[in-house]
Amino acid sequence: MRNEVQQYLEKHGFGQFNPKAVLFDMDGVIYNSMPNHAWAWHHAMAHFGIRMDESEAYTYEGMRGVETIKMKALEQLHRELSDEEAQQMYEVKTEFFSKCPPAEKMKGVESLMRTISHSGLRIGVVTGSGQRSLLSHLEQQFPGLLHHEYMVTSFDVVHGKPSPEPYLVGLKKVGVKPWEAIVIENAPLGVRAAVGAQIFTIAVNTGPLPDEQLRAEGANMIFKRMDEVEKCWSLIC
Fold first, then answer.
1. How confident is the prediction along the chain (237 residues), in pLDDT tens digits per residue?
2. Residue 139, SS3 per DSSP
3. How far is CA 188 from the centre of its chain?
4. Which of 28, 31, 103, 197 gets the highest tally of CB atoms within 10 A of its CB?
């Protein structure tokens, strides 16, 4: 851990690493919801004549849904969609997602949050999701740990991941500087966003993509499961 922190400080020219907050991604980090999203993306896009394999959903994970749709429509339909058109298509994706069984919490994530909270650190959520069905349950399912004023969703930003904007907004919401935060992500585009915001980034590879994709985006540490992060937290922070 000491080497990773030193490399992080040298890369960004910071004089100290003093964590006061942890920013969690949601899908694939807090909830095991990515299989549901992948299924919904595949079927919703097919409804509009757009090919999108379930495995491809992991590549675009973290982007705002409307941005993903605009990109795929331009690529395959050769059309530039308006925000309204893309939002209407995203609503269809939301309908497919609602047919999936409820996503379970990632093993170890709640215990990790309690450890973080007990140590006096603030906890935020930074997600590209606009799935109100999930967002509305966060506070209820993590009572005393997650609070809406520390959440950043697709509704809070103009540019979603991989832009650093979501994590920059997250820093402002929890009231810390980049060297005072840690990000926990699972997606390459999310890692790129966090690294772009100059935050120490822990990647947890809960999907099918190779570790190298997370490392190539600048992840400072990589774990295979959330419960591994929970077990090693005393060495991290």
1. 779 999 999 999 999 999 999 999 999 999 999 999 999 999 999 999 999 999 898 888 888 889 999 999 999 999 999 999 999 999 999 999 999 998 899 999 999 999 999 999 999 999 988 766 666 789 999 999 999 999 999 889 999 999 999 999 999 999 999 999 999 999 999 999 999 999 999 999 998 889 999 999 999 999 999 999 999 998 887
2. helix
3. 9
4. 28
Structure tokens at 160: 């979603």
In the numeric block, the tokens 């980090």 are attached to: 29
Provide the token pair at 84: 């309204």
Contact 53, 40 (CB under 8 A): no
Would you state the structure tokens that stand for residue 17, as one six-digit string?
Answer: 């690493």
Nearest partner of 73 among 50, 102, 101, 107, judged by Cα? 50
Report residue 179 as tokens: 């060297």
Cα–Cα distance for residue pair 32/21, rounded to 1 Å: 23
Question: Whose CA is closest to 39, among 88, 87, 101?
Answer: 101
Length of the chain: 237
Output the six-digit token pair for 34. Answer: 């990515």
CB 45 within 8 A of CB 53: no
Distance from chain centroid for Cα 101: 21
Token pair of 45 as six digits? 């896009």
Phi/psi for 124 (5° steps) reads: -120, 165
CA-only gyration radius of the chain, Å: 17
The one-letter amino acid code at 139 reads: E
Supply angle C-alpha 104, 108, 111, rounded to 5: 110
